[in-house]
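User: Sequence in, structure out. Go.
Assistant: Echoing your sequence, followed by the structure tokens.
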Amino acid sequence: MQTKLIYFIRHGETKLNALGIRQGALGELTEKGRIQALTTAKRFPRETGSPEVIIASPYERTKETASIVAAELKMPIEYSDLLVERRNPSEIIGHSGTEKDIKKIVDLIDQSFHDDNYRYSDEENFTDLKERARKLLEYIKGRPEQRIFMITLGLFLKMVVSYMLLGEKLTASKYNALSYLNPIDNGGITICSYTVQEKSWFKKAKEEWKVVVWNDLIEAKE
């Protein structure tokens, strides 16, 4: 039996997070966000048992978080587009979620029960995101490391974990309910395991994903 551990980290707080502004690929960390990233890194030993590789989204906020973690742990960084955040509709990027028109769009795509293929405009919709989550899990399976550090973003991390739990039974409505009820904080750690029981002449190989820890966070002190 072989088990991989995947340490998913949500990036540190950004200046736009603090203002409630919807982001695209850009968005640098606040001082609090940089402290969150360092606080998270210090929780991992540099000796045996530490993650073997850091893989991050190439977005500005995840790259900055990854650079802080990598410097502390003295590890190189790899980047993967599989870990980027869901692409928001162009109409809401750079706008506050408190704006009346923006709130309507956010409620429509994030908090309503709708068809799996519903698309407001040019965003990555539920079906797109579900497929990317599936691809990420396949990517993880193919990695040679047993302990993997992945730095990603909140909405996509929720999709990945939702897909782990429900697989192809996951629907947009179930995802929205899980997402709403399970917040994840900047700098929060979610640990998942992937176990393969090797096949033998009398039984097939058995694969199992588990969520071991959800949104574990030590409050960063500024």
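User: And one key feature?
Assistant: Strands lie at 2-10, 53-56, 77-79, 147-152, 189-197, 206-216.
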